[in-house]
Write a structure and sequence with these properties.
The chain is an alpha+beta fold. The chain is 15% helix and 49% strand. The protein has a seven-stranded antiparallel β-sheet with strand order 1-7-6-5-4-3-2. About 5% of the residues have low confidence. It is globular and about 40 Å long. The longest helix has 8 residues.
Length: 131
């Protein structure tokens, strides 16, 4: 099964979109489900910085993960790897200029989903709200 990927085009240049994508603390403002995080070490959003997040899953309304920022390439790519009891999950956000707008592609790589997770994972949506 290919890695799940979501794409959205935002009517704003990458310079306007990047601050929303590459600031992990802002993800709760545009996430379709409850999300919050705290920094554990390092400079916020810098490669190598560690965080703890709490998000929503169907079986766990306060799902906790700890992770690391693994890429921060301004106006281009932001990536985090977080770990929970099922293993490591990588979320990559890539930005590309298209006309006067920005295409944002989110790719998620993790352990293969099992059971009901297969259905939930395939039907989930990702939204982005630029500044």
């Amino acid at each position: 099964m290919p890695d799940p990927t979501w794409t959205v085009t935002i009517d704003a240049p990458p310079e306007k979109v990047w601050p929303w994508v590459a600031d992990l603390a802002k993800h709760g403002e545009w996430s379709p489900k409850p999300y919050r995080m705290e920094w554990l070490s390092g400079d916020p959003n810098a490669v190598g910085s560690r965080f703890r997040s709490h998000g929503w899953l169907p079986q766990d309304k306060d799902h906790e993960m700890e992770g690391t920022i693994t890429a921060h390439e301004p106006w281009s790519r932001y990536e985090v790897v977080a770990t929970d009891s099922s293993g490591d999950w990588m979320n990559r956000y890539e930005l590309a200029l298209r006309g006067s707008g920005t295409v944002v592609t989110k790719t998620m790589v993790g352990p293969p989903p099992t059971g009901a997770g297969k259905v939930v994972f395939r039907s989930s949506r990702c939204s982005f709200v630029p500044a």
